[in-house]
Protein 1
Amino acid sequence: MARAVSNRTKVANTAIAGALGFLMFFPILWILFLAFKTEEDAIRAPLEVLFGSGWTMESFATVQARSDYFKHFSNSVIISLGSTFLGLLVAIPAAWSMAFVPSKHTRNVLMWMLSTKMLPPVGVLVPIYLIFRDLELLDTRFGLTIVLMLINLPIIIWMLYTYFKEIPGEILEAARMDGATLRAEILYVLTPMAIPGMASTVLLNIILAWNEAFWTINLTASNAAPLTQFITSYSSPEGLFYAKLSAASVMAIAPILIMGWFSQKQLVRGLTFGAVK
Amino acid sequence: MATKASRSAARLMISPAVLLLLGWMLVPLCLTLYFSFLRYNLLQIGATPFAGWENYYWFVTDPSFKAAIQNTLVLVGGVLAITTIGGLFAAILLDRPMFGTGIIRIMVIAPFFVMPTVSALVWKNMFMNPVNGIFGRIATSLGFQPVDFFGQIPLASIIIIVSWTWLPFATLILLTALQSLDQEQLEAAEMDGAGWWSRFWFIMLPHLARAITVVILIQTIFLLSIFAEILVTTNGGPGTATTNLTYLIYVSSLLQFDVGMGSAGGVIAIILANIVAIFLMRMIGKNLDA
């Protein structure tokens, strides 16, 4: 029973909420502008930047030429996709068995897995760093992929578990009654129902891995450095750099912004471990 | 309906995950504990003798430890206050009927998807720089002295940057919780003559209590580990003005190569995080019908 709302109230609400949205989004909008300006224009007064200067793509080319941007971009892609894929490989069977063949330990196992996520990364920084040094994994994409897979594994398992739990057991029984084999049951009944949940899990995990900025900074230097680490090279910049920083930033956040828009709901479920749905 | 065979199959399916997480947790945890009792510096080659509580003693009595604890509390508390209260109002605002709900919601939530190093550098240079930053420009054009954010109010500046990232998170979760509120309950209260404030105080807030707690606890876990924002803006300075516990441990272990000291700090960080984690785990556990 929706309440009738006058258009005037709606307009007023839109204005206030729109102002909030604009304020929150402004920094992103601003670097989007600056990325297409020359360095000289990028440091002019805000209104001049907007209305009194031309547009150019040169910053993007400079960033690529000066620092091999696409190497770092592909590092980010490889590490976030790789860690997500490996994580799924381990998490799907685990979540599956806990959801469909629960035992009296399931609850404790789930809670214990969650507790590993509560461990502050800095608490294990020293040993991980030394182990990586001794195994010559420092600054390798492989090492970083493994670490990111491990830190996000509890979230993947939890998310998958909550999605699998929502698949009603009666459907499986019905399929079995109709003579479906285990293979057919998994392939034609379970999988199609599990795919939406798995897709959102994948999406959220890629976002988390892409933006992870503790291990990526501490365990890489140049070769395996993903974008989080690459951007830090702008923290002690030389000369004019606003346009270049903006161009590099826009390219670093654009793919994730787009994915994020599709995954708002899943974000809530994933990051609150099902405590808020 | 679970047979014995399917049970053992289930155990087999879950074991890789359990073993990996067990290894990931236990090995480094034990090593951190072990190192924390050694006199062990990577710059000094040779023996690493047992040091007892020495590392803990020196870590805790160092003046920068006290500063780091204070900064950590102010940082976490400040961001929590801004994001929870701000998120509450943003959620109520976004829940109202309006035009273009989708696009406005996306604009509010977008900052959460910006990686920490980007958001910190963009704020530091494009907004908080006293000469070329937008805040400085506005202040100058109005005839005020521009604020030197990272010189005068470094910790507050970091709180602003981190809040920008986490306000969307709080908003999103509170909005989700708000949408599960029964509208008829609100309408009934309104018909009975309850004003906006009493509807907020007696219906909305109690309904949101659980979500607010979850927001606070989860954010605390993440905020205790703030690192990248500090690294790229202030390097913990000026002095120790923006050094939090995470950054202090990073400095002693990876910049001063003092493995023993860094590990002692790590153990302290783990204990602190666990205090919060216990409450969070209880909340989540209650909701789990396994």
Note: Chain A touches chain B through 101 residues (CB under 8 Å).
Protein 2
Amino acid sequence: MNEFFNMGGYAFYVWSSIGLFLGAMVIDFIGLSMKEKTVKRNIKSWMRRKLNK
Amino acid sequence: MNPFLALVKRDLTLGLRRKSQIYQPLVFQLLVVTMFPLGLGSGAKTLALIAPAVIWILALLASLLTLDQIFKNDYDDGSVESYVLTSYPLPLSVMAKVLAHWLLTGLPLVLFSPIIAVLLHLPSSSYGVLMLSLLIGTPIFSFMGSIGSALTMSLKHGGLLLTILVMPLLTPVLIFGASAVVESSLGNSATQPLLLLSGLLVLSFTLVPFASAAAIKINLE
Amino acid sequence: MHKQRTNAIVTLYHKLGSPPSFYRISGYFLKWLLLLSIGLLIWGLYEGLVLAPADYQQGDSFRIIYVHVPAAWMSMFVYGIMGLCGIIAIIWRMKVAEAVMMASAPIGAWFTVIALVTGSLWGKPMWGTWWEWDARMTSELILLFLYIGIMATYSAFSEDSRKAARMAALIAVVGIFNVVIIHFSVKWWSSIHQGTTVSLMGESHITWDMLRPLLIMAFATKFYYGYSMLKRARIYLLETESHKRWVQDTVNESNNGDKS
């Protein structure tokens, strides 16, 4: 197991590459979900204001 | 008079009235060239080594200073709309604008380049190739710049956006232009890069006016 | 028979071309694309990091290939899609093509950044430097500038999203031609000025055990792109058509769905 994480002495390079790759996707995913929520909320509040007028 | 020549003549008369547009890029070049030996602090050898790259990058930067002017003034005074509305094909009007812009800003850069070359200790045997490569390369700057200028003409501060858009597109010109000068300063034949550079000029001459015309039409919608 | 088939294709085209049906149809795919990409990612990384044998020259550092190369492939694939959508957006003024194009830009730029940084992380142990001006890395960097230019153009004209999208489309189309020229000119340049740099992909013979995880990862990134692009395109359509009826219905529907 230790050997696996050591990556033949290249641990830093290999694991930071993998981490960056997965991290970028996770950030993209979370950012998208948050953006969808805010956009829907904005549209809703805009509709409510229009109804109240 | 032929509408093409009429447009070129009009732009040249207007341009010659605004002389700052012509001499300021040259002053800019001279200023930056002065910074190089001061910054490097080393002798003539290093200067001569980096001279081809420096001259070409300076030509690129000096062109970028004026590229937004190709359509900006015409947009502000509304004459861009007349190019679209007349029966004369828009790509040809674009070509006339580019030609006038190159005569006003590109050609002076070409003629001025030996002075820069002297200051940077470029071997005098490669002056010919330097001027020839700039003569082929600087029109490409104006052509590609016309796309950027047509896109950004309606923006108040479009200069930086234009630089971001146009500079990556100009990397091939820089590559071939600078390496033509490098090859000739090493005593080799510069035919291959010069031919490739001419190929780029033919491509941009035939394709870019259509792209710029499309950009103008989108921008005026 | 023949006529019917063309009709079906034309109908599909029109359906995908109208924002409400695009929104509805893409909704069916989102979950599956995400699940597929996560599944393939886990499988591909497991095969690549654990099962695949170490390279006889590069040792375990070659395993960076399993994220570097798929990301580099995606950076070009996504740009190709953007150019295609750009042509459609300019000629037929199809709103969905604009949405797909603008939705592709951020994820394509992400993949380009990943390709650049992982390339640098691979270059350090192999070349001894974080950055080498070799042909691949240089053209990848210029590709990133093109992505940035497209997004910057869109945001500069943000008051009018249709105009902004068509402007960005024009840059994408011009860029398509230029990417090819830039790629070959950079290759030409590095062949003259650099002598031979060690290519990251090496001469070493790649075995099926090493190649399979690479292909799995390539599919995983494609599916993730599909998810991210569709999701972003949907948000884009909601935002730019917010005054339209179907958006308001959709938003209300999802609200009820949340409550029940």
Note: Chains B and A do not touch (no CB pair under 8 Å).
